[in-house]
Design a protein that fits this description.
The chain contains four helices and two strands, in the order ααββαα. The chain is α+β, with helices and mostly antiparallel strands.
Length: about 90
Amino acid sequence: MFRFAAKANLDLWHDPETHQRVASVGMMQDEAVEVLRADSRFGNVRRTGPIAALDLKASDKGYLAELGAKLQGCGRCADLKSRLPRL
């Protein structure tokens, strides 16, 4: 079964349409990253391939920072932005 899945994956990467779709997703991610870069609550916003990352700016830092409690249960970017205090 794994062989068939591996072959199907390789076949996808040989399809030129796949590369167009990946590029399209990358452009959408770049737009989302720019929105985060414009928000003063975030720093060092970056993206490599399909992975985006950022640093949260907080007045108290470290393991027991107050911000951690506010972020618990946050699973989406929209949730994250609504839970962060304005700076």
